[in-house]
Amino acid sequence: MPARPRATPESPGDLATYRAKRDAAKTPEPMGTRPRRSRAAKKPVFVIQEHHARALHWDLRLEHEGVLVSWALPKGVPEDPARNHLAVHTEDHPLDYGSFEGQIPAGQYGGGRVTIWDQGTYDLEKWRDNEVMVVLHGAKVSGRYVLFPTNGKNWMIHRMDPAPAGIEPMPAGFRPMLAVPGTLPPDDEGWAYEIKWDGIRAIVLIEGGRAKLQNRRGVDITGTFPELHGIGGFLGSRPAVLDGEIVALGEDGRPSFNRLQHRLHLVEAREIARRAKDLPTIYVAFDLLYLDGHLLLNQTYDERRQQLESLQLSGDSFITADSFRDVKGTDILRATAERGLEGVVAKRRDSQYQEGKRQPQWLKIKNVRTQEVVVGGWTEGQGERKGSLGALLLGLPEKDGLRYAGKVGTGFTSADREKLLELFRARTRKRSPFTEPLSPAEGADAHFIRPDLVGEVRFSEWTADGRLRHPSWRGLRQDKRPEEVVKE
Fold first, then answer.
1. Highest mean pLDDT: which of 2-6, 244-248, 409-413?
2. What's the chain's average pLDDT?
3. How many Å from the N-terminal Cα to the C-terminal Cα in the chain?
């Protein structure tokens, strides 16, 4: 039978459960010594408290028959009638808890910070053992809601009114806008400059204090980066969608794509948790696509940046990227080169966010030449590496197929070689995936594979016949598809 929301008038045993869970000598929470509410009061009150306990949640408390009947809402109060939220029925609280804010000491029941998120009065429409229907009148939450049990202490809360005017539901995901490879704009007027981070692109969807991470292909990578989840708690109840980059820093404090590669290959939860401590990452947010029920895609870069900066994102594992405006692009590019950084991204300050498109309103200018490539095969090593991986055969997709772009035989660790060979075994094919035949020297001892793996190399320049000169392997790009690869 579902837990009963019914409360009885205050008497010596009313708050027994509440008091049994708390030590009055150790917690600042009220113990219910305040007199019962006056019958002359016009409307019952409600309060929603934001509770940063072991897991962030919001406590909805409704005054009823002399106590505050309470539910814990892990994702807060829903604004969208199409989405119900979990509501866990908890013990009744004393009336004076409705004004409580403070720090419950660690080790005590519900230890953590409590603040009042919203409060007001409500109209009672129905109060039964299996249904509570109210109309809330608060500063942040107003509308008709119903709570109903599902299983044991678990209830659901549903908004019965339409969503507030102007509120748009959060999309399930976004395809990030992409920059075009290029050179610095000839005129700095109307442009902003950002550092180009050597990481992987990630969209972060935040709802109910929980963060969900997606790579640029829309794949959920939340479990791969547990240290980044704190960004959800930082924003609390504010729904938001961020665009940015996941970066691993080397011992010199600069982004290390190699370190990031070690994290991307992990699949076991225990190993991920351990490596999150050894090889931590940070999330660098540089754009804001959705906030508080509003899509921002049609706003200008400056308008989105202003709202992003107002969030003041700053934590151990997340920051807001700097945006340099009214400066010379040559100065920013020179500064990144001096610090050994990858380069800069120039963005038109009046540009809208064009989801999933590569547009010249965003330009990426690199200090170090890198190129995404499609792996089409491999050759065996020589000497002590006989039978192991020696080099990769690389290609670039064109209209008529995969054009051969050379081979890379340096930049691999022993673990890289083993991992790649493991991936190749399931992709073996007899025919070459390249549109042109390889020369005898290039094709000697070649093993061909299905061309669906994307990697990245550093190189010095392109040769006259379209080959990469002096390439060095940087790692796989699991966040990119072969058809997304373009010549830099």
1. 244-248
2. 90
3. 64
Q: Cβ(189)–Cβ(217) under 8 Å? A: no
Q: Which two tokens stand for residue 277?
A: 């401590």
The whole-angstrom separation of Cα 449 and Cα 253 is 37
389-398 and 401-408 strand pairing:
antiparallel
Region 431-445: what's the mean pLDDT?
87
Q: Report whether 468 contacts 394 (CB < 8 A).
A: yes
Q: What does the pLDDT look like over 332-343, one tens digit per residue?
A: 999 999 988 889
CA distance 141 to 327: 43
Beta bridge partners of 121: 45, 137
Residues 70, 84: Cα–Cα separation, whole Å:
17
Cα–Cα–Cα angle for 226, 418, 414, nearest 5°? 90
Spatial CB neighbours of 403, under 8 Å, sequence gap ≥ 6: 395, 396, 397, 434, 435, 436, 466
Q: Is 196 a catalytic residue?
A: yes
Is pTM beyond 0.85? Reply is: no
pLDDT tens digits for range 271-293: 777 777 778 899 999 999 999 99
* CA gap 93, 62 in Å, rounded: 10
Residue 127 has pLDDT above 90, yes or no: yes
Cβ neighbours of residue 368 under 8 Å, at least 6 residues apart?
A: 342, 343, 458
Of 21, 126, 140, 196, which one is the catalytic site residue? 196
